Amino acid sequence: MNFIKSATSEGLADADGVTHSEYVNLYRHFAKNRELSIIITGHIAVSREGRPEARCVFLTDGEGYPYKLRTRNLRRMTEAVHSENPSVKIIAQLNHGGRQIPRLQLRKNKTSICCSPIQKKVNKSAFMFKTPNQTPQSCKYIKDQFVIGAKQMEQAGFDGVQIHCAHGYLLHDCIKAGLIQFVMEILTEIKDQCKGILMIKVNADEDNLKFINEAIKIVDIVELSKGSYDNPNDMIENHRSKPAACFIEQHQELTKQKAKICVTGGFHTREEGQNVLMEQICHYVGFGRLYLMPQITKVQRLSFGRMVQALSKFMPLINAGPATIFYEEEQRRIAKKIALKNEDEMKRVGIMWWFVCMIISFFGFQRYNTIRDMTK
């Protein structure tokens, strides 16, 4: 079946950006699902300074620690996935957080550089994010980081990479700012130097159509999605409706190209995805949250109470953010093998959980930290 497990941040790396057995457990769990054609990892930052959140896998150069340990442990995960399900492809999503790296996270990344061609901080984010102080043109090494990262993923046994050009991160900002050539050079170099599948993730917006038409000539699969921290209402809408599917219905000429099209967002059941595929609107349907609960049934809509719902009209992130964190926690609970049945997991949600979640995330922490058990 042409279903894709879309990238969902899992936060299962240690402080050095190295994964361990829980990461293997999680992706082996996904691989057991025989309806999946492709599994895409949560975003892997191409550098420490580009890491958008705590416990995100990030890449480094060199031949010593932690480069060798990270590569070996990632290879153990890809081998486990291929052993569990030889027909599924495992893809590494590469990303740079750009201006969507919180201030506290920048300190943990040991950098003061906030890079974006859009020199203003994220809209309606209060003091959470910093105003960018560098551009991609002045940080020319960023292009190399994506290319070197793709090579490292090939060495770690991945079947390919997905370059994250959506959701308000660095390369999405480059596209918005008209730096399409900068992004195209990254894609071209990866295609020339790596043998695996090349995917991109891009927002399903009319403003991105020029880039999509260029990229579709190079890449193998285009995944369409929606939303960013600048437009958190789009993030919410992406989970409630099907903006990517509507976009591709209006631009069916894109499906006639060599590259395949995947639409992600708003699909709550397998049946909804099957209907889109049967109508031949696209080649793949991506699901994120459908696969993040212990039993794969239907995506649950989370409710944090009327107060949060009312406040979210003025600051949408206070609703969208905790919802994302809940599903991140579900992945960590699955990886640690402590997840209960769906209905029991949903009982954790409520105003008290939301309050604790907001406090923990404000200080840049998370629950269920990674156990470093694959150091030898």
TrEMBL record:
Coiled-coil ranges per UniProt: none
Pfam families to which the protein is assigned, alphabetical: Oxidored_FMN
InterPro entries: Aldolase_TIM, NADH_flavin_oxidoreductase, OxRdtase_FMN_N
Keyword Protein biosynthesis: no
Gene Ontology molecular function terms on file: FMN binding; oxidoreductase activity
Boundaries of every NADH:flavin oxidoreductase/NADH oxidase N-terminal domain copy: 26-176
Classification via SUPFAM superfamilies: FMN-linked oxidoreductases
TM region positions: 351-368
Keyword Cell inner membrane recorded: no
Domain of life from the UniProt record: Eukaryota
Keywords: Flavoprotein, Membrane, Oxidoreductase, Transmembrane, Transmembrane helix
Protein name as it appears in the record: FAD/FMN dependent oxidoreductase
Phylogenetic classification of the source organism: Eukaryota, Metamonada, Diplomonadida, Hexamitidae, Hexamitinae
